[in-house]
């Protein structure tokens, strides 16, 4: 790796050569883990420091125990665990007198046909509802008219035909299935086989309702029974009988096969795309994702029932929403919105799912620190896509968190204009996933099939555990808040009203305004086959201001009130049937704007230019009035650092002035927020909140409130690839960044990642960067998978956190 420091004029001011000599460990099939706070894998290139590198070098030729003993000499007060990862797809071990002589699983061919070759071409990974082939070599001829080959497929620790976790089938198909059997597999002798020589090529088909998971496939001929293989079975969006069937190939390619994504953050007026590497086809992802299911509370309570229920994507989706966060034992990610990320990573650091999931798996299921909503959703999307459920990440801007199902969000301001913490909140944005599946559990006519909201961010409990969804998007659109699962909560996130209150010094409150438009704006996801943003707001809510939108809101609100009071009839279906809905009052006091202001004051904020983190923030407050007399106003301007959850993170500055507003004229008040004033707050915050409270000094009952959120742009960082990318051939990439502030940047680090390009993250410490100087870093990589890949870079230093860039690499 080569690093250059340059002045902005590009005159060479320093040349630093950094040579990295990583120790390449042998790739053995055993892993070592040191318990407590330190857990490592031999396959992690940077798992141990240089003091341990020599002790762990060339471990493949040694036994796991000897490696373990030597490695632990370098760790004090630790306990050790060995996990055997050497299980292969091929399970047949033949003896000289065995009737079974060999098996060919045709893994490469089968996996290609089943769209799993991106995961592996060595391990057999198939999709349910679709046949795969297997060639079995017997020691003697096989006569289909006289002989019987009985096969068994089983999954879980308690396989059962009645639960669908075991199936007995055969060639020829003379094995009767009982009436209570579920998920029956089938096998046929493929044309072109040579049974007279003992060579049987079989076509085996797992049913479209088989539980997903790891299976053991065995065969019995005459009196001998033999395990043939271990294989994995996934959901099949290519199969019309599967509940996750997606009929459009472009959507299957985007929502199942695409490893690259775009997550949208910022706020409604300043939407910032963030590249994300889902990396769902990286090494061991099948094991990782299935282990997530095995560690759920549902499995712990009823392992046989849980494995059986994995035939149902509705059930699997709910389990994953619960397991992604640490509210569940062995959860993948710990949420942290405090701004204090000691002991872990700032949630904004992450750029890919595999690093998180691999760390969780390699540390024997120790929760990874830390995540926030977009990280939870992105990791869940990776798991869902790997399992075969079409999935996409969705951002809701101005997202309400309604804790009491009132469809009202109350926000409070002090008389100096500062926002106060509240139980209810409106997040700048909130991110969840949508998964594509059928919903026959709530309608037999397919009305609620299609996209379902699943939210892995722990907010409220559902059926006793922190999970949310699947909630049909169609039900959210129609206000069917009584339907499963958690439709009412998601409906509020995109439809709630905002009521602003002024809290006076004596504790009394005045209602300033009611806003029925802001919540639920620009609901966004990545477009199919491009990185453009797709606005899907119309699939969630009726157009604001229309009678249809008001009608749906009243319908949903009345349902929620009825459920809260226990009124109405369930009609035997679990659905509340309201009485008198056609005679509802058309005047909704919750959604009526304030009308008690005798003379309207128009308040606007205007930015001189798009503010950049590292520069001063300049904007103007513009006041205008239709009054025919001069108005004397008290103007209280408050600047706060805000977390994206809508909660204040620090008071930056306050300014109070008296202003005269002349009739027929605009009043422009400049607002300046210097970088040196705000920068320490913005290291752990996402935006600035500028609020103004204006009091008419000639009539102090007239109080006006306005606010705006400012998302600061990150300073630019660039990443480019030099040369053509070919699998196995060295490729050079270059990163450049210029210090935009008048202070030295210290503790600079660069993190590089990208599935198919790096097997893990590459973290590099950089020298201090003087004001107006630029750093240029070149580094090598060796692509190991072809196709379109995303190269991600993250830059951190003393003044900035998680400045990101990415580029697309086409690998031949």
UniProtKB/TrEMBL annotation:
Biased composition (Polar residues): 579-598
Entry superkingdom: Eukaryota
Cofactor field: Ca(2+)
A GO term for molecular function: protein-glutamine gamma-glutamyltransferase activity
Catalytic activity: L-glutaminyl-[protein] + H2O = L-glutamyl-[protein] + NH4(+); L-glutaminyl-[protein] + dopamine = 5-dopaminyl-L-glutamyl-[protein] + NH4(+); L-glutaminyl-[protein] + histamine = 5-histaminyl-L-glutamyl-[protein] + NH4(+); L-glutaminyl-[protein] + L-lysyl-[protein] = [protein]-L-lysyl-N(6)-5-L-glutamyl-[protein] + NH4(+)
Catalytic residues (UniProt): 373, 430, 455
Biological processes annotated in GO: nervous system development; proteolysis
Keywords: Acyltransferase, Calcium, Cell membrane, Chromosome, Cytoplasm, Extracellular matrix, GTP-binding, Hydrolase, Membrane, Metal-binding, Mitochondrion, Nucleotide-binding, Nucleus, Protease, Secreted, Transferase, Transmembrane, Transmembrane helix
Name of protein: Protein-glutamine gamma-glutamyltransferase 2
